[in-house]
Amino acid sequence: MNILWIFHQEAYQKLEWKQIQKQQVTIGSELEHTVTFQTYPKKEEPITIRKEEEGFSFHVGSSQTRKLEPLKAYKINIENEQFTLYLSQQKVEKQIYYIGHLPELSFSTRRMHNPLSLNKQMRG
């Protein structure tokens, strides 16, 4: 399963391509775009991402189309705003825990390092 991550400032959006049911996704400032960011420059064309036979591609307005490769970050600067595209190819496992007022940290469990050495590093 392909998951498209879009990072901007302190926020991010995640789209599972299977749920979208389209061959194309747009990122912009208008409600008709698949992903909407209020800070996206209104005068600029949206970022367009397409699913093709050999993978995914993206372009901004009339700029050259670039291939969107999995597990590689693509930074796009539009005026003074930076957007980062990232394509992953696995299902995200989701678990939610109530932590109250404490700061939240997320760790991947895919490649687990020795948890004891991690604890030592965190303690100083």
UniProtKB/TrEMBL annotation:
Q: Which Pfam families match?
A: FtsK_SpoIIIE_N
Q: Give the Firmicutes EssC N-terminal domain ranges.
A: 4-119
Say which domain of life the source belongs to: Bacteria
> What is this protein's record name?
Firmicutes EssC N-terminal domain-containing protein
